[in-house]
Specification:
By secondary structure, the chain is mainly α. It has 13 helices and 3 strands; from the N terminus they run ααααααααααβααββα. A 3-stranded antiparallel β-sheet has the order 1-3-2. A hairpin with a 2-residue loop joins strand 2 and strand 3. Helix 5 packs parallel to helix 7. It starts with a helix and ends with a helix. One of its GO terms (cellular component) is eukaryotic 43S preinitiation complex. Its main location: cytoplasm. Keywords: Cytoplasm, Initiation factor, Protein biosynthesis. InterPro entries: ARM-type_fold, CSN8_PSD8_EIF3K, eIF3k, PCI_dom, Transl_init_fac_sub12_N_euk, WH-like_DNA-bd_sf, WH_DNA-bd_sf.
Length: 238
């Protein structure tokens, strides 16, 4: 997983050269990285390091700052939870100077607390609370202008919940899983079938994996006779 985070298999050679080479912070390459972000949004791909490079370029070149790009980056980072991607992005926004050249008011200051709260709910695995807040009237602007453009955003959030479920449960009630995924009825059944999980009446069986299986670990130490003799001799000498 770490290798795919550093260098996603979907990253092109051009982007690899930009992200890994000395041209990472060359402002003339910003448009290439921004286009790559839009590709991620349309294709359900994700490349955190490339997106961090955009934020760093904005930090070095405040006149190039684009708030919509930043919001899209943060939106994509939400779906990487529980990895620290979102907080890594936030760390590059601190003490950002106000860009007076924007034609319209900057939407980021008003949306940032919302995005932080969504990230907090996902990180704490409070999935029902996430869906309730995400679907509230308060977040209509975020849904209508940003997440709607991010193809597969809600499914990506469901994958965050699935990772937590697989690591925690061997069996889970259908009602509980439905609240985690914001799916009901045939949608939930279809989702479970795609995962290859079994449904026994109102209970869903999670296949065994290294995270949800408790196994006793036996630690055995081998002490050679020569070592034991030294210990006994040392004790006798004292």
């Amino acid at each position: 997983m770490a290798a795919s985070w550093v260098s996603p298999p979907t990253r092109t050679e051009l982007i690899e050269d930009l992200v890994s080479g000395v041209d990472r912070y060359n402002p003339s390459n910003l448009s290439i990285l921004e286009d790559y972000l839009y590709h991620q949004i349309r294709s359900q791909e994700y490349d955190c390091l490339a997106n961090l490079a955009i934020l760093k370029l904005y930090q070095f070149n405040p006149d190039l700052y684009n708030p919509d790009i930043v919001i899209n980056i943060l939106t994509k980072a939400l779906t990487a939870s529980p990895l620290p991607d979102f907080n890594l992005c936030i760390s590059l926004l601190d003490e950002r100077p106000i860009n007076a050249t924007l034609d319209e008011p900057d939407p980021l200051p008003s949306l940032l607390p919302t995005l932080k709260r969504l990230n907090d709910l996902l990180y704490k695995c409070r999935f029902p609370a996430f869906w309730e807040y995400y679907q509230s009237d308060e977040l209509e602007n975020l849904r209508d202008n940003y997440t709607v453009e991010c193809v597969g955003f809600e499914d990506a959030v469901r994958e965050v919940a699935i990772r937590a479920v697989k690591a925690t449960f061997t069996r889970i009630s259908a009602d509980r899983l439905a609240s985690y995924l914001d799916l009901n009825g045939s949608e939930l059944t279809e989702f479970v079938e795609k995962k290859g999980w079994k449904m026994e009446e109102n209970v869903i069986v999670i296949p065994p994996n290294p995270d949800n299986q408790i196994e006793a670990t036996v630690v055995q130490e081998n002490i050679k006779l020569a070592q034991l003799t030294k210990v006994i001799a040392h004790s006798a000498g004292n």
